Amino acid sequence: MGLPMPSAWEVAAQLGVYFVVEDYFNYWLHRALHCRWCYEHVHRVHHEFTAPIGFAAPYAHWAEITSHDIFKF
Ligand SMILES: [Zn+2]
Protein backbone atom coordinates (compact mmCIF):
# COMPACT_ATOMS: atom_id res chain seq x y z
CA MET A 1 0.00 0.00 0.00
CA GLY A 2 2.27 2.85 1.13
CA LEU A 3 5.63 3.34 2.68
CA PRO A 4 6.00 1.96 6.20
CA MET A 5 5.81 4.48 9.01
CA PRO A 6 8.96 5.00 11.07
CA SER A 7 8.98 3.63 14.57
CA ALA A 8 8.61 5.93 17.56
CA TRP A 9 12.31 5.40 18.29
CA GLU A 10 13.27 6.51 14.73
CA VAL A 11 11.08 9.62 15.00
CA ALA A 12 12.55 10.52 18.40
CA ALA A 13 16.13 9.98 17.17
CA GLN A 14 15.58 12.08 14.03
CA LEU A 15 13.95 14.88 16.01
CA GLY A 16 16.85 14.84 18.46
CA VAL A 17 19.41 15.14 15.67
CA TYR A 18 17.33 17.84 13.95
CA PHE A 19 17.16 19.99 17.09
CA VAL A 20 20.91 19.70 17.73
CA VAL A 21 21.87 20.47 14.12
CA GLU A 22 19.35 23.31 13.79
CA ASP A 23 20.47 24.89 17.09
CA TYR A 24 24.15 24.52 16.11
CA PHE A 25 23.66 26.32 12.80
CA ASN A 26 21.49 29.04 14.35
CA TYR A 27 24.16 29.70 16.98
CA TRP A 28 26.97 30.11 14.42
CA LEU A 29 24.81 32.11 12.02
CA HIS A 30 23.81 34.47 14.83
CA ARG A 31 27.42 34.75 15.93
CA ALA A 32 28.53 35.57 12.36
CA LEU A 33 25.94 38.37 12.27
CA HIS A 34 27.82 40.08 15.11
CA CYS A 35 30.77 41.00 12.86
CA ARG A 36 31.11 44.78 12.63
CA TRP A 37 29.60 45.29 9.17
CA CYS A 38 26.75 42.79 9.61
CA TYR A 39 25.83 44.17 13.02
CA GLU A 40 25.79 47.83 11.93
CA HIS A 41 23.89 47.27 8.69
CA VAL A 42 21.65 44.27 9.35
CA HIS A 43 21.66 42.61 12.76
CA ARG A 44 21.25 45.77 14.85
CA VAL A 45 17.51 45.72 14.15
CA HIS A 46 17.19 42.34 15.87
CA HIS A 47 18.71 43.72 19.08
CA GLU A 48 16.50 46.83 19.22
CA PHE A 49 13.89 44.66 20.93
CA THR A 50 15.20 44.20 24.46
CA ALA A 51 12.40 42.19 26.09
CA PRO A 52 13.24 38.45 26.21
CA ILE A 53 9.97 37.16 24.74
CA GLY A 54 9.23 34.92 21.78
CA PHE A 55 8.02 37.76 19.58
CA ALA A 56 11.48 39.32 19.72
CA ALA A 57 13.21 36.41 17.97
CA PRO A 58 11.81 37.04 14.47
CA TYR A 59 12.03 40.83 14.86
CA ALA A 60 14.90 41.46 12.44
CA HIS A 61 16.02 43.14 9.25
CA TRP A 62 14.51 41.60 6.11
CA ALA A 63 17.96 40.54 4.89
CA GLU A 64 18.57 38.62 8.12
CA ILE A 65 15.28 36.78 7.90
CA THR A 66 15.90 35.93 4.25
CA SER A 67 19.44 34.70 4.91
CA HIS A 68 18.27 32.50 7.78
CA ASP A 69 15.68 30.86 5.55
CA ILE A 70 18.16 30.33 2.71
CA PHE A 71 20.81 28.76 4.95
CA LYS A 72 18.29 26.43 6.53
CA PHE A 73 17.51 24.89 3.16
ZN1 LIG B 1 22.71 39.01 17.95
Automatic annotation (TrEMBL):
One GO CC annotation: endoplasmic reticulum membrane
Pfam families (UniProt xref): FA_hydroxylase
Domain of life: Eukaryota
Record localization: Endoplasmic reticulum membrane
Keyword Glycoprotein appears in the UniProt entry: no
Catalytic activity of the protein: a long-chain fatty aldehyde + 2 NADPH + O2 + H(+) = a long-chain alkane + formate + 2 NADP(+) + H2O
EC number: 4.1.99.5
Record GO terms (molecular function): aldehyde oxygenase (deformylating) activity; iron ion binding; oxidoreductase activity
Enzyme class: lyase
Keywords annotated in UniProt: Endoplasmic reticulum, Lyase, Membrane, Transmembrane, Transmembrane helix
Membrane topology listed for this record: Multi-pass membrane protein
Domain Fatty acid hydroxylase, residue spans: 17-69
InterPro entries per the UniProt record, alphabetical: Fatty_acid_hydroxylase, Sterol_Desaturase_Related
BP terms from Gene Ontology: lipid biosynthetic process
Homology family: Belongs to the sterol desaturase family.
Protein name (Swiss-Prot/TrEMBL): aldehyde oxygenase (deformylating)
Organism, scientific name: Musa balbisiana
